[in-house]
């Protein structure tokens, strides 16, 4: 049986999809989280000098979407054929789009501008991307959980 270590910062961000896949698969893994001040001393240990990184039996894999796709395939969550895999990829890519829209909010230093960005994200970006995920769930779903509140 393989051993898994997921490296990321203390927070959700780009590692969260992988954590959700581990949870959905019921798979144990080591969740290694670094505080921002610890990161510089570990950066050189990562293949591209960035995180998240998934270590599988000693091999380190970079890039959040590559990690998520690998895990989904590893735990038979990626679809049984190419078409189902493409549907799963559409959900992963839509989730990645949402995270990308949030990142400027997260890293904004100016409190006033950050407040404006949060409001825009919550009123424009988040609803749009949740609707996109809901649409994909209706198109491709198998009767599983939904984001709708009805």
TrEMBL record:
GO MF term (any one): glutathione transferase activity
Domain of life: Eukaryota
EC number: 2.5.1.18
Domain called GST N-terminal: residue spans: 2-79
Domain GST C-terminal: 81-150
Catalysed reaction equations from the record: RX + glutathione = an S-substituted glutathione + a halide anion + H(+)
Function: S-crystallins are structural components of squids and octopi eye lens. Contains relatively little if any GST activity.
Name under which the protein is recorded: glutathione transferase
Originating species: Rotaria sordida
């Amino acid at each position: 049986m393989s051993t898994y270590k997921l490296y990321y910062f203390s927070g959700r961000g780009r590692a969260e999809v992988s954590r959700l896949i581990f949870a959905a698969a019921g798979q144990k893994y080591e969740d290694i989280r670094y505080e921002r001040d610890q990161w510089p001393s570990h950066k050189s240990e990562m293949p591209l000098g960035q995180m998240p990184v998934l270590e599988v039996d000693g091999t380190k894999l970079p890039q959040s979407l590559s990690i998520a796709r690998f895990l989904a395939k590893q735990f038979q969550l990626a679809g049984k054929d190419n078409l189902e895999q493409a549907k799963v990829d559409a959900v992963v890519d839509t989730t990645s789009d949402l995270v990308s829209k949030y990142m400027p909010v997260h890293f904004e230093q100016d409190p006033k501008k950050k407040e404006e960005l949060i409001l825009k994200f919550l009123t424009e970006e988040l609803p749009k991307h949740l609707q996109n995920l809901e649409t994909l769930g209706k198109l491709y779903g198998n009767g599983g959980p939904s984001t709708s509140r009805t």
